[in-house]
């Protein structure tokens, strides 16, 4: 049996506290959606014709890219460090302050008066958002019936794409019609403050670790890597994160660059095509992890990587004449790319965790993906684009996804439906 304060849960499904399970997943989903909104709304506000932010602060496109990189690296390091502390000190001790701080940093982004101040605010935001990812995975797994781990982590994680990449640009541009960029940052930060209060009211501390039935906090840091997936998942996630962040960094330039260098689309059409990333990503992060509960983590990850690589390659071969085809190919590339991310960072990481190290394991996997895939891969892709053209950056992403398939061949199957752990 595994127990949680204020209720009981059992691996055999008896007396499972389903009410708490769905409260937690709903709370985490909305909160992680706000993380995505706060994280990805900056470039939209910077580049919007209705915003004076770039002119007011003297921001260049390079500044925007640098801030995204700093935030991503801070996110990755913090996901690991604070995930470890969440295993030692408790979920509430880490998660609630993290939600509060990242929401306040969104508000403070609207108060920044210089590039330096904005960089500081965004780095602190990354430090606060990282543990929402790693500790959030731990809280979701501990509240979930084993047969629903993939489904629940998919619901939780897909909101980053839905809020940040699909709804975020719409929300930002609509608000900028009638508000200054200062006010927009403040408005999008307020809901997070509400969710911090809700987390304080709802989140429970586990009495025993969700998977191992042993006391949390009892595992050693070096002993965390005993399971094969603890070594394979971080390497595989680097490939998924690399694909996502290279696409995010280079896609707009490729879509709008003149014919020969890119596709020559006008900004509105390019934005419509780009929306496939958010829509496909959200569906992939939800649907494929849920499917992995039934068919297995390994086959779901392998299928996601190879299909994402193929779809992205064919996207690079498509011309500007049929934007519907571009949207569909980008939709599938993003859907399967984000699916691999969600499976590896969620149920695969959690099911590889030793006693008492669930948040630490999730944090380390996320750290590797964010720091290398999210930080270093876009730098390499930008360098390749400068030498060989923008399409080379997308080839690099497609090859990285194919490499993710090869790495994932070494995963060990851990889905309860396949291992008899239901």
What does it look like?
- The chain is mainly α.
- It has two domains: 2-217, MFS general substrate transporter like domains (Growth Hormone, Chain: A, Up-down Bundle); 223-414, Growth Hormone, Chain: A (Up-down Bundle).
- The chain has 14 helices and two strands.
- The chain has helices at 18-47, 53-57, 61-89, 91-109, 115-143, 149-176, 181-202, 228-256, 267-295, 297-317, 323-351, 358-388, 390-408, 416-419, and strands at 2-4, 7-9.
- Strand 1 and strand 2 form a beta hairpin.
- Helix 1 packs antiparallel against helix 5 (115-143) and helix 6 packs across helix 11.
- The longest helix has 31 residues, at 358-388.
- The relative contact order is 0.15.
By CATH reckoning, the class of the largest domain would read: Mainly Alpha
Please give the order of strands in the largest beta sheet.
Answer: 1-2
SS element count, helices: 14
Shape: globular
Task: Give Rg in angstroms.
Answer: 20 Å
Taken as a percent bin, the fraction of beta residues is under 5%
Tally of DSSP β-strands? 2
What structural class do you assign from the helix and strand content?
mainly alpha
Q: Order of SSEs, N→C?
A: EEHHHHHHHHHHHHHH
Mean pLDDT across the residues is: 87
Uncertain segments are 1-14, 209-218
Number of self-contained structural domains: 2
> How is the main sheet built?
2 strands, antiparallel
CATH architecture of the largest domain: Up-down Bundle
**CATH topology (fold) name of the largest domain:** Growth Hormone, Chain: A
Instruction: State the share of residues found in helices, binned by percent.
Output: over 70%
């Amino acid at each position: 049996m595994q127990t949680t304060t204020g209720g009981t849960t059992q691996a055999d499904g008896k007396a499972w506290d389903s009410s708490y399970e769905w409260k937690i997943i709903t709370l985490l989903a909305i909160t992680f959606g706000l993380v995505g909104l706060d994280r990805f709304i900056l470039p939209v506000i910077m580049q919007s014709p209705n915003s004076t932010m770039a002119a007011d602060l003297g921001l260049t496109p390079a500044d925007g890219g640098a801030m995204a990189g700093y935030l991503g690296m801070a996110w990755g390091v913090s996901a690991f460090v604070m995930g470890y502390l969440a295993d030692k000190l408790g979920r509430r001790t880490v998660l609630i302050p993290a939600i509060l701080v990242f929401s306040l940093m969104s508000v403070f982004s609207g108060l920044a008066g210089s590039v330096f101040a904005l960089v500081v605010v965004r780095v602190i935001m990354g430090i606060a958002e990282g543990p929402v990812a790693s500790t959030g995975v731990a809280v979701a797994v501990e509240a979930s019936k084993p047969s629903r781990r993939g489904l629940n982590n998919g619901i939780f994680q897909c909101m980053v794409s839905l809020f940040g990449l699909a709804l975020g640009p719409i929300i930002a541009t609509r608000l900028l019609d009638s508000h200054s960029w200062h006010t927009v940052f403040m408005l999008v930060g307020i809901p997070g403050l509400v969710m911090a209060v809700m987390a304080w009211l709802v989140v429970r501390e586990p009495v025993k670790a969700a998977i191992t039935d042993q006391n949390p906090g009892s595992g050693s840091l070096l002993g965390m890597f005993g399971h094969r997936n603890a070594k394979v998942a971080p390497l595989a996630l680097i490939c998924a994160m690399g694909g996502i962040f290279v696409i995010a960094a280079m896609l707009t330039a490729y879509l709008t660059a003149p014919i020969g260098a890119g596709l020559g689309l006008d900004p509105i059409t390019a934005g419509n095509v780009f929306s496939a990333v958010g829509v496909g990503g959200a569906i992939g992060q939800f649907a494929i992890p849920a499917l992995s509960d039934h068919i297995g983590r390994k086959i779901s990850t392998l299928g996601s990587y190879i299909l994402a690589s193929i779809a992205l390659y064919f996207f690079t071969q498509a011309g500007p004449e049929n934007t519907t085809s571009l949207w569909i190919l980008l939709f599938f590339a993003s859907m399967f790319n984000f699916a691999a991310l969600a499976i590896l960072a969620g149920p695969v990481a959690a099911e590889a965790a030793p006693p008492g190290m669930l948040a630490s394991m999730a944090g380390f996997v996320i750290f590797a993906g964010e720091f290398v895939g999210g930080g270093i891969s876009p730098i390499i892709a930008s360098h390749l684009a400068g030498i060989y053209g923008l399409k080379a950056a997308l080839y690099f992403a497609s090859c990285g996804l194919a490499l993710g398939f090869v790495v994932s061949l070494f995963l060990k199957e851990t889905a309860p439906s396949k291992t008899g752990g239901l």
